[in-house]
């Protein structure tokens, strides 16, 4: 318990990660449902907290929902509480049982679906709904849950003039058509057939072309939680299982969504690599790709995520796409809490994809570094490890490995557009540790 509390205090001190993984660092977020409305990306996650005094720490403690939006392609804005458990008209109070939600738009209105434990009801969870004129609320909550539906993890598909509610939790997943009011179902739920055996939850439907995709969390006894998917030519099924989108990543659970944003498909999911505890999770995102035959390429989780920093944004190179002969660790000294690249020796490198140089107005670069020695340099190269050098920072003694200094150098060439950065560490041959690197910044 003490370990988890310390970890919570640590994460509350972290700075925004500029859409690198994990996406949110000032609180714990799980079960992210991502939606694109009017060209803007929103994410509706659940939230994990350290249980209040007297409550068992062995289970999830989830009090409600925030909503986040992506601003300027790099920074997440927290719009605050969208719904707290004790504000649900029909739920049992203080259950901390607000699991994965969804939000969709139909006919100009936004509908937020969520599971909760109903008062005086035998069902494990019921599903409720609220309606708003804005994707960030406020929402008007229905006085009761959706009759005829008992389960968790609502996932909603808006398919032209028809809408379908998917849900489950257990060995089966279900689907039911929603009425035009989005607050009731028109037919009894049916079990989705064609899915593999085993525990399944986190049903998330989408349509691409004429193909319906049902993605879901799937537990393999020998592997644990994975993300799988199936396809059909009918939203009600039957479906054909196609395989895994993401392997188990040593998670206690995984829960996901898929969205097309600016022409690029993105997989959102959660992981607990910050807290070290699988009941305190953090949402992440990585790019997803379809093959020519419509199947989905397996996604490997990264630290880099989906953000595209530009002039004036800190470039957290510790959230790398690729690293060679170096490590990452929590920042030391009196720096704001975060991560750094460390244990970098000569010929160590870090690759950080997709930095937007804009129209070429950047003329300087900053680097936040700490070093206990005075030999070598840090080269910033474009697009390849042996690409052109655009900036070079001399390594100097800053007072020690935890004494930080910001260096500013002129860019060696005008650069515009989107490029990958390679950070290359140079020192004398041998085992000389070069420098600790916190961040870069274009100006």
TrEMBL record:
Q: Where is this site: Important for catalytic activity, responsible for pKa modulation of the active site Glu and correct orientation of both the proton donor and substrate?
A: 153
Biological process terms from the Gene Ontology for this record are: xylan catabolic process
Entry keyword set: Carbohydrate metabolism, Glycosidase, Hydrolase, Polysaccharide degradation, Signal, Xylan degradation
User: Does the keyword section mention Signal?
Assistant: yes
| Transmembrane domains' residue ranges | none
Signal peptide positions are 1-19
Q: What domain of life does the native source organism fall in?
A: Bacteria
InterPro entries in the cross-refs: CBM6, Cellulose-bd_IV, Galactose-bd-like_sf, Glyco_hydro_43, Glyco_hydro_beta-prop_sf, Glycosyl_Hydrlase_43_Enz
Signal keyword on record: yes
User: Which family does the record assign?
Assistant: Belongs to the glycosyl hydrolase 43 family.
PANTHER family per UniProt:
ENDO-1,4-BETA-XYLANASE, PUTATIVE (AFU_ORTHOLOGUE AFUA_2G04480)-RELATED
Q: Can you say what this protein is called?
A: Family 43 glycosylhydrolase
Organism for this UniProt entry: Bacteroides xylanisolvens
């Amino acid at each position: 318990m003490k370990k988890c509390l310390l970890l919570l205090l640590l994460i509350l001190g972290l700075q925004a990660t500029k859409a690198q993984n994990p996406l949110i660092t000032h609180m714990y977020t799980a079960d992210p449902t991502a939606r694109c409305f009017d060209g803007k990306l929103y994410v509706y996650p659940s939230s994990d907290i350290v249980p209040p005094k007297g409550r068992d720490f062995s289970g999830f403690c989830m009090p409600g929902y925030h909503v986040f939006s992506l601003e300027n392609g790099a920074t997440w804005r927290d719009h605050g509480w969208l719904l707290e458990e004790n504000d649900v008209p029909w739920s049992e109070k203080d259950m901390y049982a607000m699991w994965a939600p969804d939000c969709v738009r139909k006919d100009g209105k936004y509908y937020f679906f969520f599971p909760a434990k109903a008062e005086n009801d035998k069902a494990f969870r019921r599903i409720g709904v609220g309606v708003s004129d804005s994707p960030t609320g406020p929402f008007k909550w229905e006085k009761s849950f959706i009759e005829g539906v008992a389960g968790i993890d609502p996932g909603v598909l808006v398919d032209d003039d028809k809408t379908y509610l998917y849900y489950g939790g257990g060995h089966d997943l279900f689907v039911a058509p929603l009425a035009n009011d989005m607050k009731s179902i028109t037919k009894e739920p049916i079990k989705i057939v064609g899915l593999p055996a085993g525990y399944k939850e986190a049903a998330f439907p989408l349509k691409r072309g004429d193909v319906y995709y049902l993605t879901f969390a799937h537990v393999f006894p020998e592997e644990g939680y994975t993300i799988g998917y199936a396809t059909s030519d009918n939203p009600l099924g039957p479906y054909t299982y196609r395989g895994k989108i993401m392997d188990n990543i040593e998670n206690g659970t995984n829960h996901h969504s898929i969205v097309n944003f600016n022409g690029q498909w993105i997989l959102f999911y959660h992981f607990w690599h910050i807290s070290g505890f699988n009941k305190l999770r953090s949402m992440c995102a990585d790019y997803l790709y379809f093959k020519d035959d419509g199947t989905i390429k397996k996604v490997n989780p990264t630290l880099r995520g989906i953000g595209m920093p530009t002039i004036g944004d800190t470039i957290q190179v510790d959230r790398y796409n690729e690293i060679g002969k170096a490590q990452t660790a929590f920042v030391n000294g009196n720096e704001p809490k975060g991560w750094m690249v460390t244990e970098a020796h000569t010929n160590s490198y870090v690759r950080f994809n997709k930095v937007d140089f804009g129209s070429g107005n950047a003329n300087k670069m900053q680097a936040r570094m700490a070093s206990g020695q005075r030999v070598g340099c840090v080269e910033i190269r474009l697009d390849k490890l042996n690409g052109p050098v655009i900036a070079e920072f001399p390594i100097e003694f800053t007072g020690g490995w935890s004494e930080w200094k910001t260096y500013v150098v002129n860019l060696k060439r005008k650069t515009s557009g989107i490029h990958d950065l390679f950070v290359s560490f140079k020192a004398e041959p041998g085992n000389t540790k070069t420098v600790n690197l916190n961040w870069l910044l274009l100006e």
